[in-house]
Structures are given as C-alpha cells and as structure tokens.
Amino acid sequence: xxxxxxxxxxxxxxxxxxxxxxxxxxxxxxxxxxxxxxxxxxxxxxxxxxxxxxxxxxxxxxxxxxxxxxxxxxxxxxxxxxxxxxxxxxxxxxxxxxxxxxxxxxxxxxxxxxxxxxxxxxxxxxxxxxxxxxxxxxxxxxxxxxxxxxxxxxxxxxxxxxxxxxxxxxxxxxxxxxxxxxxxxxxxxxxxxxxxxxxxxxxxxxxxxxxxxxxxxxxxxxxxxxxxxxxxxxxxxxxxxxxxxxxxxxxxxxxxxxxxxxxxxxxxxxxxxxxxxxxxxxxxxxxxxxxxxxxxxxxxxxxxxxxxxxxxxxxx
Length: 316
Fold this sequence. Notes:
Layout lengths: L2 E12 L2 E7 L2 E3 L3 E5 L6 H8 L7 E6 L2 E2 L4 H7 E4 L11 H11 L4 H14 L15 H12 L6 E5 L7 H16 L3 E6 L11 E6 L2 E7 H8 L3 E7 L3 H9 L4 E7 L6 E6 L3 H13 L4 E6 L4 H8 L7
Parallel strand pairs: 4-9, 4-10, 7-8, 8-9
Antiparallel strand pairs: 1-2, 1-3, 1-5, 5-6, 10-11, 12-14, 12-15, 13-14
Helix pairs in contact: 3-4
InterPro entries: AAA+_ATPase, ABC_transporter-like_ATP-bd, DrrA1/2-like_C, P-loop_NTPase
Keywords: ATP-binding, Nucleotide-binding, Transport
Organism: Chloroflexus aggregans (strain MD-66 / DSM 9485)
C-alpha cells in the first residue's frame, strides 16, 4: 500500500534534550493512524515536523512524496493540521472564521460561500453559521476547527489531541465525523494519550515512548505479533460445561475458559490454527449438539497493545 507519510531517521533535539530518536514510520493512504504515547513522548514534535512548523535536527520526512524540509509550501497544500490548542478571534461568526482561512489558502471568492456551507454541514454546524465563534461550546469549536483544516481539501489530516476536554457526547460526535472523513478518502493521523479515544476508529497505530517508536503497523498485525494465538468467544444456550469439554478436544485448541458473569453463558477458546482449524472447531461443536448463538474472534484493545509493547520501558 502506498505511504502518504514516511520518515527516515527523523531526529529532533531541544537543546541537549532528545525529543525524537531516529523515527522511522510509514502511514498508508486511507488509514486512520493512531499515534499513541504519554505526554512528552514526542507526538506533537513529530506532527509539527510533518506540518513544516518545526525543522528536524536530523533525518527526513515526506508527505505525499514531498519533502517537509525542501518543499514546505507544497507540503502545506496537502496537509490540514489541527493543533492541540487553537485560537479564535473575537467578533467573528463561524462563517467569517472559515472565510478568513479560505482567503488565506487563496480559495477564489466565488467558491467560498458554497464551500463554507458544505463544510459547516459536514461538521453539523450549519445552524451556527452566523453565531459568534466565542459563543460556541468546546465541542462545536473543535468541529469548527476541523472544518478549517478541510478548507483547502487536504489529502492528509493531522489532528493533535482532538478529543481533549470534550464531554462524552462531543467525543462520540467527533468519532463519527472522523469516520465520515475517512469514507470521503482522507488519511487521518490522530494523536492521543487516552487510548479509549482511539480504540474504535484506528486502522493502524504507532506507539512512541521517550522519542522512540516502539511499534507501528496495522492493528491486526501488531496484535498477532504480540499474541500469536486467536481467542474466540462462543455464546451457547446448551450446557456450557459440555460445550467446554467438546471444544477442549478439538485440534489446535490451547485453552478453554468458561465464563459465567452478567452476560450470556459462554466459553472462550484460544486456538493457534488457521481458519480451517477454526471452522473445524465450530463444526465439531455443532455436530455434538452445542446450541450456539454467537461465535466470533475477540479483538485486542489498544490498552493491551500499549502495555505489552511498553513493558519494561514506560516508567523505567
């Protein structure tokens, strides 16, 4: 898959403090890339270099094939950046705010009205078109800022802690908006130190700690590398003990656990075989009279990935 972002030995010092340590990462076109790490890990430094707002001390980075050090103006045309803190001007409506940035990006005046209306509709702020930006809630300001990053139709969106300070409803709205932007063909790089904010939207992740990239790639591949077997949750309405015994005798089954909690009775099965082994397990259960209402692979979560990757590094 073609990479829209690539870095090679990207390094940044602040005085004698090493903030980025020979960072090598790739972000494929169309990905939602979660950039994960604690505060001070190097996330914002990386993003500011990719958006040409900060020069690296060493190494190189490319966005859409353009050098962030040699082709800064061209890079800015293909990137939309939403920093972790952003300013708004007093006595300016939401439409005027977007018009100001449209002019800065040389959008022709004849196109601006329709463009601004489309962007306000996209972020569900059409009803706030003529409202003063300072009267908007924080969630609305976040969405307006995101609309501003889209004003020049960038290929890549770089969002630094976009959900910071939002209430639960605003976070849900932001997630839905990011899903829509991906459907529209945008590649999204989004940072956070709160893993639950990214768990439901990322296709790829990068884990950074103390300026060093510890892991990067698609979520499924990273999970397989950390946990070579797969775990299947099987909900049954027949005798659960019998189902567990049947599953335990199937080929490639490593372990079987019986779960009796507030949810439906189920077993969890660890299996190290391929899809044929999984199919054989299901067939074995059904042929032996197990009444199954749910059979699905469990997906790992970002907390599990982060803790395993950073084990012995974070806090040392």
